């Protein structure tokens, strides 16, 4: 599953495959596609867990409104992965219990 034309990020460059890292594991991505889309394409559906009940959350609105997709990227917590373009070498971490709402 890839997003061809994102309403916020526009069109990704499908001629440029890159590698991002999810919890230190390499994941192929299209340069400029939403990070969440790259993770979905790699089979990842859970992007974070809720703080209190530790329930899984994945991409919901896909346009930066709901915060269900927030993850840590390059050391910055709370990044909306659905509106963050993938770039080479990006380090993505799954928030654990208590790291996000
Ligand atoms: S899925 Fe809603 S903000 Fe990303």
Short description:
By secondary structure, the protein is mostly beta strands. Helices cover 7% and strands 32% of the residues.
Any overview of this molecule?
This protein has 101 residues and is mostly beta strands. It has one domain (5-93): Ubiquitin-like (UB roll), CATH 3.10.20.440. It is 7% helix and 32% strand. It contains one helix and nine strands, in the order ββββαβββββ. The strands form three sheets. A five-stranded mixed sheet has the order 4-3-9-7-8, covered by helices on one side. A hairpin with a 2-residue loop joins strand 3 and strand 4. The longest helix has 7 residues, at 35-41. The structure holds FE2/S2 (inorganic) cluster. FE2/S2 (inorganic) cluster binds next to loops.
Entry keywords:
101 residues, Ubiquitin-like (UB roll), two-stranded antiparallel ribbon, binds FE2/S2 (inorganic) cluster
Order of helices and strands: EEEEHEEEEE
Note the total helix count. Answer: 1
Strand order of the largest sheet: 4-3-9-7-8
Determine the N-to-C terminus distance: 26 Å
Task: List cofactors, ions and other ligands.
Answer: FE2/S2 (inorganic) cluster
Mean pLDDT: 91
Question: Which CATH class is shown?
Answer: Alpha Beta
Report the count of strand segments.
Answer: 9
- CATH architectural label: Roll
Might you state the CATH topology name?
A: Ubiquitin-like (UB roll)
Structural class: mainly beta
Would you identify the CATH H-level superfamily?
2Fe-2S iron-sulphur cluster binding domain, sarcosine oxidase, alpha subunit, N-terminal domain
Strand content: 25-35%
Helical content class: under 10%
Shape: globular
Rg of Cα set: 13 Å
List unreliable stretches of 5+ residues: none
Domains counted in the coordinates: how many? 1
Largest sheet: 5 strands, mixed
